[in-house]
What we know:
This protein is α/β, with parallel strands linked by helices. The chain is 32% helix and 15% strand.
Amino acid sequence: MNVTRRRVLVLCTGNSARSQMAQGLIAHHLGAQWDAYSAGTRPSGYVHELAILVMGEIGIDISLATSKSVEQYRGEPFDVVVTVCGDAAESCPLWLGQGRVVHIGVVDPALATGTREERIAAFRCVRDELAERVLGFLRSMDGEPQC
């Protein structure tokens, strides 16, 4: 049986932490079912070093990822677009293209303050929340008919 992989785009503002971690998690855990992409409305131009660190702790290498603009994906079809901005104070991207839009808000770990260990702990919490919520949502879609 030939199974067509679905396409998911994860959006946030800077495409440096949350959306990059979510993309890595999806590719690692659900890569047989989903092609994962990520982008931001105002790309930072880099992937946050602590995002790379905490993903590496669980065996997922995102060190070669790049921060991309949402404009790169305009006009491309996606089955689902997940926005991961934390709250209304952030500029959460508006997706005008094809695909079901779902908001799974998560705090921005790049805004964490404190010691390096406290900041790393914040990135771990966000990584784990993304794993639970984003992967959980996509797994729940596995039973839905594909269009």
